[in-house]
Every structure is written in structure tokens, then in C-alpha cells.
Design a protein that fits this description.
Blueprint lengths: L3 E10 L7 H22 L4 E10 L3 E10 L16 H11 L9 E2 L2 E6 L7 H9 L2 H5 L1 E7 L5 H8 L7 E3 L2 H20 L2 E2 L25
Parallel strand pairs: 1-2, 1-5, 5-6, 6-7
Antiparallel strand pairs: 2-3, 4-8
Length: about 220
Amino acid sequence: MANRPVHFIWLLDCSYSMQGEKIGQLNYAIREAVPEMRSVAHDNPAAQLLLRTLTFSTEARWHHKDPVPVDDFTWQDVQVDGMTNLGEALEMVSRELQTPPMPQRALKPVLALVSDGVPTDDWKSGLRALDATPWGKKAVRVAIAIGADADRSVLQEFLGNPELQPLDANSPKQLAAAIRWASTAAVKAASQPVASPTDTTVKQPPYAPPQLDDDDDDVW
């Protein structure tokens, strides 16, 4: 049976507010999550999991530009640099979710947004561009809010579903758990139904974030 691609895109806040322990823990958590993503992919032979990473700071840029099969994916640490231009990042992702380059038929893409702050550019314009694409509209979206300064209202609008909430990561332990959940649960949700970009009637499956332990002494 021919498999179909699941495009998983990390959108990572790499502004200066992430410097120090936050960016270090984010790199560690994603690196540790990759083997679990492989395991999930192997359990879904009808799906081909492809990974990319987009970072945003003073500018948005592809950290892994070309889709990489999860079996070949090696995490390369991201670095902090400047502001929080989320809108530019969403615009860039929206261009990748046009058809082409996306195929007519595929499994839903996964967009995983991680941020600890407030956007410094026109993020609503970027979100409109993303929502205007068929695959962007159908994407399984997850959002992780790092620390108390993260703008949860922005992350909530990104999710685009009042039944879903951003997952709060207020400590290194919670961030690791949140990344692990986003890496696996969202892929499972995206791998189930087969969809076409013109079919806008399929509702997103439930993939509610878990309750995370808050017994970590190191709180952001």
C-alpha cells in the first residue's frame, strides 16, 4: 500500500527571551522526542512522516527547509536572535501549504508552534494567509506556551478551535512533556483520516493536551 506524506513543521520562537535555559531545554526536548516520532511513524505504515523546522526571531528562516523523512532526521540545535516575528513565519509556512508544492491528496499536515512571548510583527496577517490555504485550514495544530510571559491569546487564535487550548510549559520538565506530546499525539491525529485539500468538512480529531505535572522546582 502506497503511503502518504504527513508534513510536520515545527515553528519555534528563537527570540532573545528564549536565551539560556529555555532554548537549551527546547533543543534537548526535541532531540529526545525524535525517536518517539519514529516509533509513531512505524506504527502507521500508511503514512510517511516528513519533518521541517522554521524559526522566527528578527526574521523567520527555515532551519530544516526541505522535508526530511523521520528516519533520516537529525536534530540540529537552534539559536536565539532578536525579536519575535511570528507573522513572517506564518506567511512562509502558508506558501509551503499551497498546492503545489503540497500534493492534491495527502494526510493532514501538523503545525507545532512553540513560543514564550508576544509577537513583534503583524502576526494576524500571517495567520490570515495560513488560514486561506486549504492545507493550512485543515492542519492539525498544537501550541506550547513557555513560561508566564507567553501570549496565550495569540496561541489560542493560532489553534483556531475553541475546544483546544495551548499547552503550558512552565518548567523544563513540563516543556519536555509538552514537546513529547506534540510530537506524538498530533502525528497520530494527522495519520488517521485521508483527506483532500478541497474537503473542508472534515473536523479535526480530538487530541486534547495532557495535564502536566507541576512539581518541578525550576519554574519559568
